[in-house]
């Protein structure tokens, strides 16, 4: 076990993967011991909310295996942002940093990848109960391989709402279209070749220019024209599509549906 305010180093292994090392103030629990009470310690601007609260209250911190991992999650989220933003802190710098950590005030504008921002935001929540577990963090779509990304989008495209994209519920349509503003898939038909669109279009009732139709188009492309689908890189065409759809599905509770729940934390 290690405590949350550890000073650690991030080292690459022989495969180029990052490894946490040098747990200088770690503590091992004795057999049968569930909690370790110790004075908080750590590096300025790299302490979790609960560690700073203990310092503010001048009290001992009680670390358990489960809570300690959740505390490390917030620090790891800060580290992810620091790396992706090339050396910036999500909670700001200087004398305001620790106050911002306590107040839950952060800014992720220096990271453009929407999936990375979503992951970081989940990890740095001030309440440990709101932070993802290790398994949930590692299965976040930011880390998905292309095959899983495609599987998710095609499964969403197989939902009845996408199948009914030509006559979608007005409220659902409006909510989803709010997400397309300034996104790469707003004018999605022009991103595919005219020949491919012509091949998949129902000429008596062509695909409309909306996001539900795009998801249905992707589903039909992989379902009925797998060879053509293999030559298309959806991530390159629509770099922000997966993040938008993932967060929309979660917001609408579609993640509770049998075909989609495996893609989300339990």
Task: Describe the protein in words.
The chain has 266 residues and is mainly alpha-helical. The chain has 2 domains: 9-142, Orthogonal Bundle (Transferase(Phosphotransferase), domain 1); 144-263, KEN domain (de novo design (two linked rop proteins), Up-down Bundle). The chain is 44% helix and 5% strand. It contains 13 helices and 4 strands. The strands form 2 sheets. The chain has a two-stranded antiparallel sheet. α2 packs antiparallel against α4 (114-123) and α6 crosses α10. The model is unreliable at 1-7 (pLDDT under 50).
Could you give the topology of this structure?
Layout: E1 9-12, E2 18-21, E3 36-38, H1 49-57, E4 61-63, H2 65-84, H3 97-103, H4 114-123, H5 134-138, H6 146-157, H7 160-163, H8 170-178, H9 194-200, H10 211-224, H11 226-230, H12 234-237, H13 241-251
Antiparallel strand pairs: 1-2, 3-4
Helix pairs in contact: 2-4, 6-10
């Amino acid at each position: 076990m290690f405590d949350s305010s550890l000073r650690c180093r991030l080292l690459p292994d022989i495969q180029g993967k990052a490894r946490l090392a040098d747990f200088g103030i770690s503590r091992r629990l004795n057999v049968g011991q569930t909690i370790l009470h110790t004075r908080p310690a750590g590096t300025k601007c790299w302490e979790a909310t609960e560690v700073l609260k203990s310092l503010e209250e001048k009290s001992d911190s009680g670390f358990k295996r489960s809570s300690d991992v959740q505390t490390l999650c917030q620090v790891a989220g800060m580290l992810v942002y620091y790396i992706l933003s090339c050396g910036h802190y999500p909670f700001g710098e200087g004398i305001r940093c620790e106050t911002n950590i306590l107040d839950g005030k952060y800014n992720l504008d220096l990271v453009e990848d929407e999936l990375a921002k979503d992951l970081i935001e989940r990890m740095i929540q001030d309440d440990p109960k709101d932070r993802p577990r290790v398994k949930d963090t590692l299965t976040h779509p930011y880390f998905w391989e292309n095959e899983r990304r495609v599987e998710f989008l095609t499964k969403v495209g197989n939902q009845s709402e996408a199948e009914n994209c030509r006559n979608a519920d007005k409220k659902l349509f409006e909510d989803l279209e709010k997400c397309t503003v300034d996104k790469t898939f707003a004018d999605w038909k022009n991103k595919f070749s005219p020949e491919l669109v012509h091949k998949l279009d129902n000429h008596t009732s062509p695909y409309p220019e909306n996001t539900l139709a795009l998801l249905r188009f992707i589903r039909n492309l992989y379902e009925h024209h797998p060879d053509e689908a293999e030559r298309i890189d959806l991530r390159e065409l629509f770099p922000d599509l997966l993040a938008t759809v993932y967060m929309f599905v979660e917001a609408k509770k579609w993640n509770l549906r049998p075909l989609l729940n495996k893609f989300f934390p339990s």
